[in-house]
Amino acid sequence: MGEIVRTVCLRDCPDACGLLCETDGGRVARLMGDPDHPVTRGFLCRRTRRDFPDLLQRPDRIVRPRLRTPSGWQDIGWDEALDLCVDRLLAAVKEHGPESVLFVQSAGSMGLSAEVCRYLFDELHATTVTGGVCMDAGEWAQAADFGDWRVSDWRDLDAAQALVLWGRNVVTASPHFLPEIRALRQRGGEVWLIDPLPTRTRSVATRVLQPRPGRDAWLALGVARVLFDEGWIDAAAAAACDGLEAFRALAQRSTVAEAAAACDVAAEDLRALAALYGQRRPVSTWIGGGLQRWIDGAETVRLIDAVCMVAGHVGVPGGGAHFESRRRGGLAITPPPAGRTVRAALLGHDILYARDPRIRFGWVQRANPVTQYPDSTLTERALRSLRFLVVVDAFPTDTAECATLVLPPALMLEQDDLVASYGHHFVGLARRVVAPPPEARTDLEIAQALARRLGLERTVAGSIDVWIDRLLAPTGLSRASLAEGAVVRPGADPVAWAGRRFATPSGRARLIGELEPTEPDPTDRADYPLKLLTVASVEHQTSQVPPEAQSGLPEVFVHPDAPGARGRADGSPVTVRTRIGHLRAVLRHDRAMRRDTALMHRGGWVRFGRGVNALVGARETKHGGNAAFLDERARLE
Length: 637
Ligand SMILES: Nc1nc2c(c(=O)[nH]1)N[C@H]1C(S)=C(S)[C@@H](COP(=O)(O)OP(=O)(O)OC[C@H]3O[C@@H](n4cnc5c(=O)[nH]c(N)nc54)[C@H](O)[C@@H]3O)O[C@H]1N2
Ligand SMILES: Nc1nc2c(c(=O)[nH]1)N[C@H]1C(S)=C(S)[C@@H](COP(=O)(O)OP(=O)(O)OC[C@H]3O[C@@H](n4cnc5c(=O)[nH]c(N)nc54)[C@H](O)[C@@H]3O)O[C@H]1N2
Ligand code: SF4
Ligand SMILES: [Mo]
Hints:
Elements: E1 4-8, E2 18-24, E3 27-33, H1 46-49, H2 52-56, E4 66-69, E5 72-75, H3 78-96, E6 101-105, H4 114-124, E7 128-130, H5 136-146, E8 162-166, H6 170-173, H7 178-186, E9 190-194, E10 207-209, H8 216-230, H9 237-240, E11 241-242, H10 244-251, H11 256-263, H12 267-279, E12 283-287, H13 297-310, E13 321-322, E14 341-343, H14 347-353, E15 361-365, H15 369-372, H16 376-384, E16 388-392, E17 405-407, E18 417-420, E19 426-430, H17 443-454, H18 457-460, H19 464-472, H20 479-482, E20 487-488, E21 509-510, E22 530-535, E23 555-558, E24 573-577, E25 582-589, E26 597-601, E27 633-636
Parallel strand pairs: 6-15, 7-14, 8-9, 8-12, 9-10, 11-21, 12-13, 15-16, 16-17, 22-26, 23-25
Antiparallel strand pairs: 1-2, 2-3, 4-5, 4-17, 18-19, 19-20, 22-27, 24-25, 24-27
Helix pairs in contact: 3-17, 4-17, 5-13, 8-11, 8-12, 8-13, 14-16
This protein binds ligand MGD (2 copies), iron/sulfur cluster and molybdenum atom.
């Protein structure tokens, strides 16, 4: 047996697991869940335990800088690569100004040292990205309601009487929260699941509602209406909220029957959910990421927050309206700059149509926008239109294929870093357990090598240890205090909003009182009768999918009687068409699907005919600037 090192997972996942990594001859021999990590409790998801060690050794891993030449990719040395890159970057700045340079990153790795490279581009006054593709609409909503987004300690579910998983696919997306859910059920607690898709999380639910996708706002309004009609409003709500009367008026604008019809939930079921909120105490609500990736997503989250708030479940042990943990809370992260920005949800469009100056030079890091951002075709066209594009990635992704220069980063287990979870309160240290390929560099080292050539060394100076110390400084934590394993971030309250004291100026929660009009859906329902939900797959981490898992057509799951499916056998090839594109797919029957919904998993690559975002138009949520990926209609041909 080789050496075993304790570290944490850096993948984009709320669980932020503690890992034990066994090495053998400088390679990762085995990954295990850290039994001493309070959330991980000794088990890992398969995509990391089984697949990640292989990923480090993949034959298609990019291990040297590579430059596009007229005759194809050519390996070059780091000095040559960075000299060329800086030459082009400075030429763009000189001719067109710093805003002709674009910096894009997402969360391919969650290490907080990712922030460091951004500081460099901020210092240059480059164009950066605003909004996001992940949780930004829900964050906006919770900031509007409570002043910030916070969750209770994960063990707080022990104090709950019931749990509502409102659009949360826990089994797929955050399996380490299952032990608490199972314990709640063993105590006789109810677990409600509200999801238009028949997900694996049904296995832990006592009751399932399968609303029409994108209509949870109506479900929340109907529940609120019952709460007000029945007088199931918490006695403390009036003092704890601003806008209670406006919210009451909003809820009373429609009848329960109208609300139930709009979300296609039986009125008895809607009333039963209202009775749960009104009569059980406390009820914990976990709000999912999927339901905020709709044009109205931020308002939907606000309406769910308001239901939890007026029924008295927020700020009490065992309750809560939990969306996401504020992982950067308390750490020394510089606020985003006020320079020119392009919108994440409309990245392709905004790059192509940016003027004064046009964007000429791009730097993409820890991100695969061609595959993962809306409208892959437009994103690809935009990235290819740049005069020089640097992509820092270890694999020949759809985005890396658009690059002029690809720089190879060290990956998880090959670098030290600091990580804080967006699902729970722990922060932990990621360790360099094995050496990266000889010519791969950490993102921090790459930023520093770039900075030296730009005369900006001071902005990003310091070893990774120095950076970790800097980030931790305001929290009072140190590397030494994290050496034995992850610890709770200081300032993270065991009960979010305990005592109903909020981070708003008044200290009270602000309830939503008005719904703003939404631009009409650009597609004709008769032409495109299915809502197309493109969601995470249990098998893979975002688009980090090996090519051998991408042979053949992608699958589209529908009810056998769904429009376009009837008369077509399971397994037959179909075309899935939306207003912006089409994909060939294999039809899969699933009688548990709604008849108005189609499911495809996100993550497959455009290059292999599996990129679902070739079907998803670029639209932003009304608030928060998130990509409204799920607000798309399709038909089968
Ligand atoms: N249709 C549809 N699309 C979606 C969604 C959806 O629900 N539907 N969900 C969205 C969501 S929630 C998210 S978060 C985004 C994710 O979008 P992205 O974050 O862009 O997706 P990833 O596939 O994680 O791509 C990150 C890249 O980073 C690379 N990488 C990994 N580790 C490192 C590292 O240490 N350094 C560097 N430099 N690179 C590294 C990986 O190889 C990978 O190619 O996708 C969104 N896209
Ligand atoms: N296996 C795996 N795990 C992952 C990831 C992965 O790629 N693979 N990605 C990670 C990332 S990037 C993130 S952000 C997190 C969270 O990842 P998310 O994809 O945000 O996961 P959920 O929060 O479970 O939200 C998805 C659920 O929302 C539901 N949903 C969609 N529309 C609606 C609606 O209108 N109403 C309701 N009620 N539900 C709706 C979908 O049916 C789906 O079950 O998970 C992470 N975990
Ligand atoms: S991807 Fe998520 S569940 Fe899997 S090991 Fe990493 S943190 Fe844990
Ligand atoms: Mo995400």
